[in-house]
């Protein structure tokens, strides 16, 4: 399925195909990269997210904001993407700041104790200030 095509229904399973749209922006302030995610971050879409994050880290970009505003769902595989790199990011004097997290996704992060590991903020300016 192409990115610009509408979601299709799988007739055999009667489910909607889930997809993830990712936008990457470099914020000139403080050399920060913002990743905006929309849709579903699950076992099927995790490889794309991993590729993007590992690409940033390979380029020495350790100051990352992830905008969850349009994220509908995150699975344990999706959570694992962030957990697998946070140590490396912090060891390189960086951080992953999560922002605009929908309440149902925040609840998952909170239940698993991830709110103690990640900084979660409501807006971009607060996220940028976290790097100062």
UniProtKB/TrEMBL annotation:
Matches recorded under CDD domains: STAS_anti-anti-sigma_factors
Entry GO MF terms: anti-sigma factor antagonist activity
Pfam family, one: STAS
Domain STAS per the UniProt entry, residue ranges: 22-131
Residues annotated as transmembrane: none
Record NCBIfam families: ant_ant_sig
Family classification: Belongs to the anti-sigma-factor antagonist family.
Protein name in UniProt: Anti-sigma factor antagonist
């Amino acid at each position: 399925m192409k990115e610009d095509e509408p979601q299709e229904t799988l007739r055999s399973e009667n489910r909607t195909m889930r997809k993830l749209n990712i936008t990457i922006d470099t914020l000139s302030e403080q050399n920060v990269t913002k990743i905006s995610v929309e849709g579903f971050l699950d076992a099927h879409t995790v490889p794309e997210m991993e590729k993007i994050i590992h690409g940033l880290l390979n380029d020495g970009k350790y100051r990352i904001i992830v905008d969850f505003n349009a994220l509908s769902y995150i699975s344990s595989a999706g959570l694992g993407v962030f957990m697998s790199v946070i140590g490396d990011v912090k060891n390189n004097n960086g951080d992953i700041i999560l922002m605009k997290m929908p309440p149902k996704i925040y609840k998952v992060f909170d239940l698993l104790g991830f709110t103690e590991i990640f900084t979660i903020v409501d807006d971009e300016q607060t996220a940028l200030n976290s790097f100062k």
